[in-house]
Structures are given as structure tokens and as C-alpha cells.
Design brief:
By secondary structure, this protein is of the alpha+beta class. The chain is built from 3 helices and 9 strands, in the order αββαββαβββββ. It has a domain of about 110 residues: GMP Synthetase, Chain A, domain 3, CATH 3.30.300. The longest helix has 22 residues.
Amino acid sequence: MRRVAIAVVIIVITGLLGYLYARNPRTPTPPPSPTSTRPPEGRVASDGAVVAKGCDDLAHSIRAALSRGGAIPDGTRLVSISLDGAECVIELSSEFAAVANQGTTGESEAQNALRAALAAFDRVKTLRVLVDGAVFEGSHSGEWEGIPVRDSMPATDGGE
């Protein structure tokens, strides 16, 4: 008789816990969006830029391109740099937004300066540029993401 009473108590408690859990289900946190523009995790360099692990050489090359000026607006700084697969994601300071006012040629020259800075790195295939946490959009060139860092080589037909 005692065993039956214990079994009944266990069943009642289990049922009560199931009822309480069903009334307050836990909602899982959705995974981050694949196009998230959250800043990369990494070390903070002496200039304040966040440099993701393994991106020191890329950061050095981008800083060199920014310091050369030309189509890159004066005062533009590197805010962060990381790799998302084979895409180099660089965030630049708000001064870079002035590129949108430089016309088609100015936008093209600025984009080419950044592409050239990354072209020597085989692990980098494309470039995404962020300004103020959002993908930069040129007035003439559209959104700056998925930009190939090297011009593709034309296929050869074997000399025929």
C-alpha cells in the first residue's frame, strides 16, 4: 500500500511540473544574422582599431592605404577589421562617407585603393566596407559588400 501511495505522489508531482513548464515555455534566443555588423572580437590596437585575431597584416595594409590619401578622404581611420570566411570586413570612420560625394571616379578610386591593399592576401577573396556600423553605400557604386579584391583572370582555351 505504501508503494502505491509513493507512486501516486510521484505521478502527481510529475504531472504538476509538466503543467507548470507548459504554461511558461522558454523561448530560445535566435542565432545572430549571417550579415550581422556587430564589431569583431579582437585586440584593440594602439590607434583604437579593433583587430580580429589573425588580421594584423590586413590591418597594416589597410592603414597604409588610408595614409596615402588620394581618393580616401583625409582623416579616415580604421575602426575594425576581421575576416568572415574569405571576406575581409573593414569598418572605417565616418570621414569615409565623403567618398559618396566624389562622383563615380572618386568612388571607383577609393574602392580600388582598398582592393589593392588586400589583393596580396590569398585568404581574402572579397571586401565589405562598413561606416558607422552599416554597409557603406556609394551614390554611384551601390553597397560595398562582396567586392572582389582581385580582377578575375580570363579563361584561356589552351592556345587554340
